[in-house]
Amino acid sequence: MRVIKYVFQPHGDDRGQLVALEEFKDIPFSIRRVYYMYDTVSNVTRGFHAHKSLQQILVCIHGSCKIRLDNGKEKKVIPLEKPYEGLYVPNAMWREMFEFSPDAVLMVLASDLYDESDYIRNYDEFLEHVKKCGKITALDGE
Ligand code: T46
């Protein structure tokens, strides 16, 4: 599986823009949860974890931020600055979110409900997990 940055279809007309996201059509999984972060304090970095099985799509619907993805072998920084772009983040991928603009709203579509036991919050444990499950997701998406 590859890391993918989706470009969603905006339905624009003379009133403005509208983006619609449907599961299994625009999003490759069933959407079981939506959450979003805003008013992020400047210079703060969030995340610092991976998930054992959760898949997510990150959409910066207002403002901008950057996402650092780490598959255990290589790291890549992906800017999110368009409300019609979504970054697919699979399981077994360490993520950090940073450089939030003051007006940034980062919305996340998640494949499952909140479950703290799905988190790997220790980096060495993450590397162990990647070794054990043998999953290295290529980081050649844009
Ligand atoms: C992820 C990145 C992109 C809930 O109660 N329910 C929820 O659905 C979520 C996501 C969080 N929380 C609580 C748990 C913590 O007390 O909200 C608090 C902040 O969560 P956390 O420190 O995990 O936030 P981030 O920004 O570090 O990470 C979040 C997601 O947790 C994570 O799954 O991939 O955004």
UniProtKB/TrEMBL annotation:
Cross-referenced CDD domains: cupin_QdtA-like
Sugar 3,4-ketoisomerase QdtA cupin domain ranges (all copies): 8-130
Gene3D superfamilies named among the record's database cross-references: Jelly Rolls
InterPro entries given in the database record: QdtA_cupin_dom, RmlC-like_jellyroll, RmlC_Cupin_sf
Annotated Pfam families: FdtA
Identification of the protein by name: WxcM-like domain-containing protein
Organism name: Schaedlerella arabinosiphila
